[in-house]
Amino acid sequence: MQLRLGYFKDFCNVAGLLRDTGARRTDSRVFVADHTMSAHQVLALVQLLEFDRRWGHGAVTVETTPRLPFRPYSTMGDELASWWGTVDEKPWLTWMPHEDGP
Questions:
Q1: Helix crossing, 11-20 with 39-51: angle to 10°?
Q2: Cα 10 to chain centroid, rounded
Q3: Residues in Cβ contact with 17 at an 8 Å cutoff, skipping those fewer than 6 apart
Q4: Alpha-carbon separation of residue 72 from 2, 62, 64, 75, 81 (angstroms)
Q5: Three-class HEC string of 22-68
Q6: What is the pLDDT of residue 88?
Q7: 55-81: string of b/e by CB count within 10 Å (b at 16+)?
Q8: pTM of the predicted model, to two decimals?
Q9: Phi and psi at residue 32, in whole multiples of 5°?
Q10: I need a surface site. Which of 2, 28, 40, 64 has the fewest CB within 10 A?
Q11: Integer angstrom CA distances of residue 31 from 84, 99, 100
Q12: If DSSP codes are grouped into helix, strand and coil, which group holds residue 3?
């Protein structure tokens, strides 16, 4: 997987999270993570992407190879429903936020 950096303001947080992913630098703004990642490294990657989404305005682009086809799981509905499991109660269908506020 390649991590390509664009413009970002918070160097210390971006560089620290990027370093914690275990990715190695291959170009001035390109890093590659082509190893099995530990839980800590995956967490750093998730935090880097979350940081980027909130504050970076598209500063980090992740390029994966090989790429999954578009909607790769669309034909696996029954298998995924079985994996997900079933419950008798579906609280997410009955819970509604109060329109007047909390």
A1: 150
A2: 19
A3: 44, 45, 47, 48, 51
A4: 21, 18, 15, 8, 15
A5: CCEEEECCEEECCCCCCHHHHHHHHHHHHHHHHHHCCCEEEECCCCC
A6: 59
A7: ebeebbeeeeeeeeeeeeeeeeeeeee
A8: 0.66
A9: -120, 130
A10: 28
A11: 35, 47, 49
A12: strand
Question: Across-strand partners of 3?
Answer: 31, 62
Q: Which two tokens stand for residue 85?
A: 């499991």
Tell the residue number behind the tokens 């079933």, with chain if given. 86
What are the Cα distances from residue 98, in Å, to 24, 52, 72, 95, 102? 49, 32, 37, 9, 6
In tens digits, the chain (102 residues) has pLDDT values of: 888 888 877 889 889 999 999 999 999 889 999 999 999 999 999 998 888 777 666 678 877 766 777 788 888 888 888 877 765 556 666 655 655 554
Report the alpha-carbon angle 40-50-69, nearest 5.
90
Q: Please state the domain extents for the chain.
A: 2-63
